[in-house]
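Milestone M4 deliverable, item 7.
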Amino acid sequence: MPGVISPPHPRRNVELLLLVLALGIGLGANLLGAIGTEQEITTAYWVQSGVLAAASLALHVVLRLRAPFADPYILPITVTLNGLGLAIIHRLETSNTLANATTQLVWTVVAMAMAGALLWFVRDHRLLRRWPYLFLALSAVLLVLPLLPGIGMTVNGARIWVNLGVGTFQPGEIAKITLAVFFAGYLSANRDLILLAGKKVGPLTFPRMRDLGPLVVAWLVALGVLVFQRDLGSALLFFGLFMAMLYIATSRASWILLGLGLIGLGAVLAFLFMPHVTARFDVWLNAFDRQIYERQFGGSLQVVEGVFGMASGGFMGTGLGAGSPWRVPLNHSDMILATIGEELGFVGLSAVLVLYLLLFTRIMRAALGARDAFGKVLAAGLAFTLAWQLFVVAGGVMLVIPMTGLTTPFLAAGGSSLLANWIIVGLVLRISHSARRPVVVDDMVNASGPGAGHQDPAKLVALEPHRRGAGRRGSARRAAVGGDRA
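Output delivered:
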C-alpha cells in the first residue's frame, strides 16, 4: 500500500515461549517446595499449576486479539513473579489445608480476568483522560470507605480494610490507580501552564500559588491517610507517586524541592505527634534492643528474625522447604522477601529483584514510546508506583528504612494488592500496544498539498517528526511506524 511502511510482525511467539517458561518456573518451585517439606505431591499442586496456566494462556489470547503490538515481555515476567509467589505461599502452609494458597490462586484468576476485561473493553487508553475529576472523586470515596462504621476494619493498628461480607478488601490499592489516572489527566492538560507560568529564582522556576493545587492535594491526601488510617506505607506510596508524576510531566527540579520540603515537614510532624509513627522509627533505629525485640505488639521480632533468616540462607539458600521461615511473623505477606532470601539465598533473591527491574524497564519503554502526553505520564507513573512499592517493602525487610506494611507486588499474599497490580499491567499493555502499533498515514496526506486544510490533525501529528527526518534525506513524503519494537 503506498505511503505505509509495514512493521515487523508482533513477536507473539516470543511471548508464548517465555510464558511457557514462566509457567514451568512456577510449577518447578511448587514441586520443590513439596519435596523440601517432605509432603506428598497431591493433585492440589497440579490443579494450582493448571489453573494458573489456563488463566495466563487466556490472557495471552486476549492480547493477541485486542493488543497484538503490546510488549511481549511484560506478561511472561509478571506471570513468573505471580507463579513464584503462589509456590512460596503454598510451601509456607503449616497444615494440609491450602487456605492461603487457594485464596491467592482465586485472586490471581480474578485479577487476570480484570486485566483481560480492561484490554478487551478499553480500546484506547486516552478515553480515561476525559474524566480526571471523576477519578479524583472515586479516589476520595475509596480512601474514605475504611473509615466508615460498620464496614471499616482495623488490622494491625491500621484502618485500611473494609469487610465485604464474603471477605476483606483494601480500597487504597485501587485508589493508587485512580489517583494516577487523575494526575496524568490533570498534568497532561495543564503542562504548558505549569511550565510557562511561575517565578524564576536563580536557575529554578517556582510555580504560581494557583498552580500548587495538585501538590497541596497530594500532600493533604498522604497526610490524611497517615493520620486517619494510621498507614505509613500508603502515605509514602501516594506522595511518592504524586511527586514522580509531577517531575515526569514538568521536568522541573523546583517541584521536587517543594515536594521534599513538604515530605520533611510531614515527617517531622508525624514523628512528634503520632505515636504509631514514632514507634515505627523506634523499631527501625533500635531493632536489636532486647526490650523492643520482646515487645508483645509492634516490636522488632519480625524484622530481626527476617534478617537472621536471610543471613542463614547465605549465597545459595537452604533450598525450598528446607529453611525455617515459620520463625518470621507474616512470612507469606509482609516478609515474603525474607523467606525467599532464606530458602533461595542471595542468588535467588537477586534473580527476583532482576525480574522486577526488567518489568519496570519494559513499562518505562512503553511510557517513552507513547505518542500522547497522557499515556507517557500515566505509564511512567504506574512504573514508579510498582518500583517505589518494592523499594519501600525491600527497604523495610532489610532495615534500610522503617517497616511500612506494604505488600510485595505479585509475590505476597493479598488479593487487593494482586488485583490492583494486574490492573496496572493491563493498563500498561494497552498503552504499550498504542505506542508500538504502526501509524498508517494516507498516501494523499501532504502538508503542502491542496488538501492540507482538510487533513486529520492526529495523522499530521504522527507524520510530522518523520517528515522532518525525511526532509533531511531528500524525501518529500514518508509514512512512519512509531513506538518501541524491542
